[in-house]
Amino acid sequence: MAFGFSLGVALILSVWLTANCTVIPDGALHMRCHDRYFMIAAELSFTGVKPRFEAVDKADVFPITEQYAAKCGYSVSVLLLRGQVELRASYFSCHTDNKDDEVFTFNFNLITTHEGKDVTYALNKTCSPSLPWSPREVTCEANYMEVSSDEGSYEDSGYMVWEIPEVLYPGLDSTQLSFGLNGELVEQAVAEDKGYIVEKHNATVEISIPHDADGGYRKSVVIDKLYEFYIFHLSFEQILVDEDRLETRVRFQRTLATPLLPRPVFTENQIVLEERTFTVYLGGVPADVELAAIYLNGQECTAPFTNASRHNVTQVVHPNNTHGYILKVPFDDPAVQLQFYKEAAVLEYGLYINFSLTVVPENMFYYHLASIALTTSVSPPAFDAVCSESGISFKLDHRPYDYLWEISIGSDLLTSELAAQHGYIMSNDSQSLLLDVPLFTHGYEYKNITLEEFFGTFEILVRDPETSEVQSSTVKTCPFTATELIMCSTDGRMTVVADLPLAIPDGDPARITLIAPYCGPKEADGTRVLFSFPFNSCGSTVKLGRENVSYENEIFYSHLNMNETLSNTTERVKIQCTYPLAGLHRLFSAYKFESDTVGFGKIIHTTEPLSGLQSPTIRPTVALTTTWAAKRPAGTPAAFQPAAHPPARYVRVSSIRNLFSGLRKGASQVKVDAAQL
Description:
The protein is mainly beta. It has five domains: 29-133, Sandwich (Immunoglobulin-like), CATH 2.60.40.10; 149-262, Immunoglobulin-like (Sandwich), CATH 2.60.40; 266-377, Immunoglobulin-like (Sandwich), CATH 2.60.40; 384-480; 485-676, Immunoglobulin-like (Sandwich), CATH 2.60.40. It contains five helices and 49 strands. A hairpin with a 6-residue loop joins strand 37 and strand 38. The protein is rod-shaped and about 150 Å long. The model is unreliable at 1-21, 561-569 and 609-668 (pLDDT under 50).
């Protein structure tokens, strides 16, 4: 059918003109035929911000200015937010080649400017409308139709709203409304099934388009924050009939755009304590936004992210054209900040995250910050302890925050070197710390010593590494037995359990004394005796050397009774405690014995002729010793390490000058009666 448009321009075949141009990049330009118009869309990144179009026919070339476009059925729009320029041409525009209203051929020139020079691209397209022509049709474009149209508005409910008159022409009845996006028209009922809302208010029809309607265009943009906007090419059709039932088809083409809408992304803390891992979900990320990098407390982790790293990042895709990312960071990762609050006894794990996002393809960067903190109650480590015949075994199952404290034996930090020095057996791995403490090694305290048994106590201290204050301790006391032992305490007392049959077969413990005959045993049985006495009593002697001081006494067995004569031999047990002189300064300043360390003890069993009692040389046969833990070579076993603390015994110091005068004269030792001290 022929249309007599008021444009009054004969449509003739055009001649394709060559153009001085270069190759158009892929994706930079699109051409599409719609039911009642032809469209060209070009990217501004390709055309620049001021592209020009020319209509071409057989006769000439016609620049499409604003006035000429309104006159001849063209519409040119620059969509800055979308980054495109659009040309829409009516099938009956001035310079379109029309064949029987069925085949329409368009020829245009696109002129861009590159480096100050114009570059022309020749474009052509042939279209055939898919919808048959009605006897009457009116198409309303933005710039040249007789019926103008109340711009669209965006509502917070998520709809783009457009209003038009219910009946455009008085005397004609409306029979059908159809509308859709991008020229794809559907009847009102079908559109409403897709989420459109159509309402009539007085003499107007209000159409509400859902923001996520199929055919709409969405784009992200960064302007300090992340925003988005939507563009809809709305097509509206109204069929009117007159009294003769002749139809008039009225069409509107309208481009509607939302304002910039905030598009915040969000983070969720999805930590599972049992996994000991930060799990953070970044959600609401639009389809045209990608994760480029992650900064963990300032440390950059750049995409692509691999599971081989300690930071695991997984993408999650959602059906609403958004996606998200799941970030996993172990608690023990170096990027995790730890803060221990002593007053509250809590440990805080802190992770500060900067998600670096980019809008593609423009590569506009947006940064989303998140701070995740987790606090957990903590307590100092505590050991499990088990008694054995040979000592005490301790075990500590490691917790991730146990490093907040130091473990010590007394005032010494527990290390592998210390364990080797004192004869402890220690193993330490990622799971647990095992410490076997043999009996008689450094650190034991002994109480309730009898011939039958004694109790050994060992204590492990947990200290604040900054202040060295003791935070907690694990104390274990176990019963032990020993045939012989000697204890040299730090406050000047010697405690000895001696096995007399080693020196005196068939001996009678009731006749046993120390050098002073009035000092008998506290306990005795058929074979052994228990003595406990201060150093300055019971006939003890002191040997003062250049570096050490020794306190000595002897256990004698008397063969005499009222009906016996003197035996030709004397069985005796020599007992001795030796201390480093440097640790005995308080002995000469505080008028009492007080040593920094326990002493080195010996029990020496001897047998010699009675006449040899005064001989300075004693030939030992059997000896039991206790060692100075602090001086004993690493790895050598100790016989006994006492640490009981009976009340301090005061000693006289009137002979101190005499003791040291002998040393100044070159003597290696000075021997005096301990009672003089």
